[in-house]
Write a sequence for this structure.
């Protein structure tokens, strides 16, 4: 497995200059160029040398130079993690089973993958080029949870055994501990699980409906509330049980609207313990299913692999009696209960502002054009077209995630798709005079960024590493105080794609910047899909953006046809 490199300083600074150029005025470009030149002469080489030395030491310990800082970035987030970093993924689940039978099938087959990991039976995953991917993210399959602490949270891994494991099932906000595996570490059969889930689903709403509320309110208040809660030994025992659970399940009655289900699964108060790595959220009425993912130790590409394995797992349909389950509850005094309720109400008020909306736009172009076309690039240019039409003025920065698991301890890199070539193309598409030459230039620029990221030469993580070295000495180089750097790293569009919809149909996550829009995107059968996540109070005119996506898709299709 390759070691994550520290890119050459000059290459990163040149790519940084190119990345910020479309976002700046002429005067700002000159000022930024001067700061880049000063950094090259002064602090840059020293910080580069320090980062290279740090990287060598980390590599010797089996980590990358980014590992611990990346983890700390998640664990020091103080706000509600459902509104900052957690992600909801809509699962493409096979079969014709409905309701409880569908839920039992999904829970059984997902458990089979979790338990296979614990038994050491999952095969290595490789890239199409045969490179083995780092399996570290799969440790989320042990269960565990993120534990709120006053300044920085910690991640507590689950037990390393597969035998006699439990899951926690939520129904109407109330939790039930349910045995999921036998003494051999194998999942209980689908009929046995169906019987237990049917019993839980049929229970009336309980007084324990607020059980998980403190997991939504943000780590700063949650840490203080949790300290008070766990002072009671009975509560501490319940918390240990919650931590040890393999995963959580929420049984919902959302109906048939996928966007509504996905929005509820990620943002709605009380659907699970938000600090658990995975909550399988299953709608019993509309037959939708999703995963609420706590993002600290796992990314979407790893989840996609896990879902693929679960889809192909052979279910055990042996008849069996319902396993035992037990209601869980906290012992709360009135003061603590009131404080949790007050924090939960504040969260719920914020969360009600978030919306999920999926837009589907047919691409009027040949399925196989006469040149190599990146649909990922096409969708980025459509989104750029839409943001220019939406807010006018100069383009704003866009984040595009790139999977980096072929490197030791690899997570993601950031590709910056708002290139000068992409901006020229988008503006010409708006004017109606775009040319094939502009399309080819944008394709080449996008490909160059992809290659840079996949070879470990992306700029965002490298610049972050240089900042980390500077911070250790209490320094703040002017390069990072430059408005250009702030503009580049303040994402109007936070975008990510996991390829086709065969495992994960789409996903929703809170925008990474105030006033921004989160977008998961994919293409299938000639249709471009954009799943938008946003705060309604910041985007009451979101229809304008949606129409611009349609206009951009149509204009792109016409250009691709002319270029073929």
């Amino acid at each position: 497995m390759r070691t994550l490199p520290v890119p050459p300083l000059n290459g990163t600074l040149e790519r940084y200059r190119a990345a910020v150029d479309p976002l700046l005025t002429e005067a700002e470009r000159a000022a930024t160029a001067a700061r880049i030149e000063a950094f090259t002469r002064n602090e840059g080489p020293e910080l580069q040398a320090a980062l290279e030395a740090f990287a060598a030491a980390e590599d010797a310990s089996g980590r990358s130079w980014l590992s611990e800082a990346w983890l700390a970035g998640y664990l020091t987030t103080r706000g509600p993690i459902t509104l900052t970093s957690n992600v909801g993924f809509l699962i493409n689940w096979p079969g014709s089973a409905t309701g409880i039978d569908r839920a039992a099938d999904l829970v059984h087959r997902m458990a089979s993958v979790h338990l296979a990991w614990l038994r050491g039976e999952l095969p290595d995953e490789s890239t199409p080029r045969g490179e083995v991917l780092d399996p570290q993210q799969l440790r989320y399959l042990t269960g565990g949870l993120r534990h709120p602490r006053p300044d920085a949270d910690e991640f507590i891994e689950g037990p390393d055994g597969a035998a006699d494991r439990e899951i926690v099932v939520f129904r109407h906000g109330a939790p039930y501990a349910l045995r999921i595996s036998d003494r051999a570490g194998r999942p209980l059969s689908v009929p046995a699980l169906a019987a237990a889930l049917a019993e839980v689903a049929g229970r009336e709403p309980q007084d324990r409906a607020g059980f998980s509320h403190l997991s939504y309110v943000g780590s700063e208040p949650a840490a203080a509330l949790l300290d008070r809660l766990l002072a009671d030994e009975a509560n501490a025992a319940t918390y240990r049980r919650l931590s040890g659970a393999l995963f959580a399940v929420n049984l919902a009655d959302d109906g048939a609207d996928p966007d509504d289900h996905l929005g509820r699964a990620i943002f709605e108060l009380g659907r699970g313990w938000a600090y658990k790595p995975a909550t399988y959220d299953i709608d019993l009425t509309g037959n939708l299913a999703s995963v609420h993912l706590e993002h600290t130790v796992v990314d979407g590409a790893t989840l996609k692999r896990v879902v693929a394995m679960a889809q192909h797992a052979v279910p055990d349909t042996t008849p069996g009696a319902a396993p035992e389950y037990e209601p869980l509850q906290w012992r709360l005094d009135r003061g603590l209960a009131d404080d949790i309720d007050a924090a939960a109400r504040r969260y719920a008020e914020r969360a009600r502002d978030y919306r999920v909306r999926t837009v589907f736009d047919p691409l009027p172009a040949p399925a196989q054009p006469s040149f190599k076309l990146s649909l990922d690039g096409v969708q980025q240019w459509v989104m750029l077209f839409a943001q220019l039409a939406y807010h006018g003025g100069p383009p704003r920065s866009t984040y595009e995630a790139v999977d980096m698991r072929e490197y030791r301890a690899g997570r993601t890199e950031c590709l910056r798709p708002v290139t000068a070539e992409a901006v020229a193309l988008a503006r010409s598409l708006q004017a109606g005079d775009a040319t094939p030459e502009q399309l080819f230039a944008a394709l080449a620029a996008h490909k160059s960024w992809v290659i840079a990221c996949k070879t470990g030469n992306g700029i965002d993580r490298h610049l972050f590493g240089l900042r980390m070295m500077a911070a250790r000495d209490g320094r703040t180089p002017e390069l990072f105080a430059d408005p250009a750097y702030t503009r580049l790293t303040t994402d109007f569009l936070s975008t990510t794609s996991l390829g086709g919809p065969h495992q994960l149909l789409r996903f929703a996550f809170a925008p990474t910047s105030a006033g921004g829009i989160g977008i998961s995107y994919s293409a299938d059968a000639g249709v471009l899909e954009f799943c938008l996540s946003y705060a309604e109070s910041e985007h009451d005119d979101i229809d304008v953006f949606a129409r611009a996506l349609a206009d951009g898709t149509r204009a792109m299709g016409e250009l691709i046809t002319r270029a073929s």
